[in-house]
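Render this sequence as a predicted structure.
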Amino acid sequence: MSTFFTLHPVAPFRLDYTVFALRRRSKNNVDLWDGQRYTRLLVIDNVPVKVVIEQKKGLDEPELLLSIQSERHELSSNRITDELEMLLGLNRNLHDFYQITQHDPQLNHLVCQFKGLKPPRFPTIFETLANAISCQQISLDAGLQIQNRLTEFLGIRLKEKEQVLYAFPQVEAVANCTASELKKIGYSTHKSETLIRLAAAIVADKSSFSSLENKSNDEVINFLCRFKGVGRWTAEYVLLRGLGRIDIFPGDDLGAQNNLYQLLHLDKRPDYKKIAEITAQWHPYAGLVYFHLLLQKLHEKGAPN
């Protein structure tokens, strides 16, 4: 049984741009896009919930049609829509960001090209950490390929006529894995142990991880970096993609370094310190610049127009 709702994001909004910033590659088997509709299998109270979103009205008066399909009729629609609003940044008002970039010749064209992009977030801290660890020190394509296998191995699935939908694995499922099991699907020993260690820590102390929402950027970084296998890049990745801190530009991100290098026509690829100097002028929206640069790179590879 499907239930339908209408959502009205804060304008301007483009579903396609926002979904591509979230999924990053077409091979992503959790965040699905068919050219018009975004589909994801969420897990709410251990129950799989299929959500499908389509944009019915455009940029300046956006309207989304949301379809929810679940075997549990009593699931709160408010809880599901709240999660989607966070996931896709539907209620983020970026008026001040557009005002700042309108007068910045380096950014104005880029921001106008992808107007309507909102900052996406992964639904949980664990999913954010897993995405970061999967892609540590290897290409994004390779990292997502391995992560797809993790999803197929441990994720709740929903079989349909033409496809199988996968939810991102629950933290408990990963905590109960062995390193040898994760190595079989492509993770290194180090990454396998890190994923299991973090999953077990979250299961054992959920309150400490859930309270990260209320901590400062430095406090979050200090907390996460206590865990073996988590460094500055991973912690900043969590701040931006897991906690929605759009003032954060992950300065150790090689792809982001290259994107800035190309945008600003720099003499050499900027290091962490140089990126901090450059992005200070865009405070508190450096993370939004990160997403726009990412979308530009995706656009070059055939992302939506």
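Summary. The first helix runs from residue 15 to 23. The chain has a mean pLDDT of 95.
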